[in-house]
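Lab meeting, action items carried over

1. Structure of the two-component assembly. Owner: GW. Status: complete.
Input record:
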Amino acid sequence: MNYDHILVRYGELTLKSGNRNMFVNKLKSNIKSRLMPLQGYKVRANRDRMYIDVHEGSDIEEMMNRISSVFGVHSVSPVVRIEKDIEVMKEVSLLFAQDFKEGDTFKIDVKRADKTFEYDTFQLQQTLGGHVLQNTDHISVDVKTPDHKIKVEVRKDAIYMYNRVIEGVGGLPVGTGGKTLLMLSGGIDSPVAGMEVMKRGVTIEAIHFHSPPYTSDQAKQKVIDLTQQLAHLTGDIKLHIVPFTALQKQIHKVVEESFTMTSTRRMMLRVTEKVAHQIDAQAIVNGENLGQVASQTLGSMYAINSVTSMPILRPLLTFDKEDIVKKAKEIQTFDLSIQPFEDCCTIFTPKNPKTNPKLEKVEYFESKFDFEPLIDEAVANVETIVISKHDRIENQEDEWMDDLL
Amino acid sequence: MIYLDNAATTKPDDAVIQTFNQMNKEFYFNPNSPHSAGVKIAHLIDKARDNIKQYLNLDDKFDIIFTSGATESNNLALQGMAQTKKRFGSTILTTKMEHPSVLETMRALEEQGFNLKYIKTTSDGKLDIASLKALMNDDVILVTCMHVNNVMGQIQPIEEVSQILKDYPKVHFHVDGVQGYGKIPLNINLVDSYSLSGHKFHGLKGSGILATNQLRTLKPIIFGGGQEFGVRSGTVNAPINVSLAKAMRQMDDQKETHIKTLTDKGHQLRGFIETYDSILINSPKDAAPYILNVSFPGVKGEVLVNAFSKYDIYLSTTSACSSKKSSHNETLKAMGLSNRRIEGSIRISIASDLTDEQVESFKEAFDKVYKEVRELLVNEL
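Predicted assembly:
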């Protein structure tokens, strides 16, 4: 079958009324950006659906693959656009049918948006179904549970025919829901949390805390790789790397050991909030999950959260660990996350962290030192990298590797 | 010197030696060390694995395990999978024509209680598909055969075997690819595990891999620090592994000209030897062209090898691995050849660096050797 179009159906976008155009335009530009490296197509969007005109010789399967993973896409179909001529429709129906297997059943499924078309739904089913049956001897009709549906859409401009519907990832187009700052640790959870909010149309920038020499360049590289993997799926992402060593050392000087973890998180949040304001983010996202580790009890969250009034989104709050792992594998961040490099949270882990730290106590320890200047210094020295969605960051090591290999 | 014993081992490629030396001089770090030098080497090894998968056209289900060579790879695959699969059955199948690293492993498994059965071979030394079909039943857990025979060059019907084994999903199909890699095309995705040795294609001795789609269930036979996905412990031999990837790259880069040269020169030699009436060519016509097994019935193979050595020509009796043993070669016996023919056999195995002048010198020497031993020859036709 020579398909000349890809039909893209919108997900819950269609529920929007007032600002639907904004959603559609964003989706259109996201799809275009996803198709960027490929050649030979043109995107036409209207309020209800999108058509990608595919030029001859383009890899339509690869294009559908890419489009179906763009947030906001409900489903895609490869379609044939034909003139409103019953003979052509008959011919195309037969072309579809020829690909069906011996003994399969089919039905003609008609949608008639253009009521002025000379054949009504019933006539079309009769005529096209009859034509297919007369000219094949390996398939039969089953109107209730057919193996294949030959779909015919009669629209004002033309007739569209197809028989495959490929499910998309759903959600809302990234860029329609405001901006957030994702706390990216290098673990399994935070990239998934980022993905979950992006699915709701939200744009992210990422923030990571780096404590050289306690944490290695490999740990930093790992976070860059993770960001890249997310960028690969949704477009360029800015990554802010915070030099955190001085703060971490100071915390260990003044805060009692069992409270250092709580304090560390509070400092991170204070830095994050400041960076969030700088980049105009409206919320902070993290991968926290209720009950997973010591810092993730309600008591702990309460003590940590008290340093900020900014909304903190925790999309994984109630997820089971195995579901998070499954999602991490789906978005291909799992293998990166499990690389064994220490991050700044694991380096200074106290022996017995408080699982239910009292806010007053944390505040008391922290009051012994003015952390604000150190926080400002960390924010001022943030290193910001734009991670491109295109191919992995060039590894400087590649050249010597290529020589040896 | 004219070197015609390439099925035993090949001359290492200069680029491969260079990689090996550079690895030892500059990149000798342990890839399992946490420091950044170690991590760099770990990346390099990962890339070597990826490249090897590409050269072998393997799909994602496959993993590459670095070993010390095909003997270890064969042992790992066969012993490891037998242990995994023994709860499903106990019958293992092979042919009598396999390399000792397979045959001896199979015999050891037999002593452990596995039920070893031999698939028959046809008169031209190929695995007999009808015999395989007759031996297949629900108790079979492991089937192994080589791709190209090291003694005669027969190409075994791997595709057909894999087709039959499709109906027996629990069977593990292992192929020893040592003599075929890079020379006779094979879709390795059809088998479950595949071994090769670097030194058979201008790499270094001590390098090899096992490619398998069964990594998860493969039981180790060497225990220790858990290197190579836990199935082959021991400090990763980064210089050897990287040089193996390099040797495969060299092969891959020159695949077409390489195969063409082997085919042309092999046919040329065959055509030449065919002109001698009382000398018999044991290798079937459709065998791999680069291995030519020839009998001078009535003359001991060893005598012939010495006779050629005098002209600075190095070839072999039957196979190098078994040529020092007094027992006759399994492959030739499996083909039903007479003792005299087996005793009088030599193996000429060529590489693509064989020049036209060398071919001419070989022909002259061959004729001289023939004249020296002519009166001993027995007409076996």
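2. GW to write a short summary for the group page. Key points so far: The first strand of chain A starts at residue 5 and ends at 10. Chain A is about 40% helix and 20% strand.
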